[in-house]
Design a protein that fits this description.
single chain; two-stranded antiparallel ribbon
């Protein structure tokens, strides 16, 4: 368990780094929208493509990079109310089955989103921003990263539940 905790601490640092990047994205989006609003009020024109840049760059960065942290903190919906009402043996079984089901789901979704991202890369997917085409294909890899982060968290929970006989759905209680 000690070794698993050490590995999880490294993973926790990686999640925090992604969360920091997500926070920088929130600041960047706020700053960009504020500049756009001021520009619209004090200049005869508006910044071109504010909506598209926020939609295609800032939003995915903010949401997808923070998914691993959100999942591990207990914010995401869980089936705890159902599991807690089972007898202890049923709780232990569900403590193994639920992370496996979630892991399978995340693996499938991660695989499919990676396939889509690779296809978007091959197609050099872009969006129209004013009169320019800006690349968006690289943002699709963030979806795969988000599913990978959730799958890694599920692996940690599964290993801990098997080793300890626990039925928790979080690796560490917050």
């Amino acid at each position: 368990m000690e070794r698993l905790d050490r590995i999880y601490n490294y993973y926790q640092k990686f999640k925090m780094a992604l969360l920091f990047i997500s926070g920088v994205g929130i600041f960047g989006m706020t700053f960009y929208i504020t500049i756009d609003v001021l520009w619209r009020n004090f200049a005869p024109t508006a910044l071109v493509g504010t909506y598209e840049i926020v939609q295609y760059y800032f939003m995915p960065t903010i949401i997808l990079l923070s998914m691993g942290y959100a999942f591990s903190s207990g914010v995401m919906p869980r089936i705890v109310a159902f599991v807690n009402r089972l007898p202890k043996g049923g709780q232990r079984v569900m403590g193994i089955i639920l992370p496996i089901v979630d892991l399978i789901f995340c693996a499938v979704m991660g695989f499919l989103s990676t396939e889509y991202a690779v296809q978007a890369t091959a197609d050099q997917l872009t969006f129209i921003c004013g009169t320019d085409l800006l690349p968006v294909w690289q943002m699709y890899y963030l979806v795969s990263l988000a599913y990978l982060m959730i799958a890694i968290e599920d692996i940690f929970v599964l290993i801990r539940n098997i080793k300890t006989g626990s039925s928790d759905v979080l690796y560490r209680k917050q």
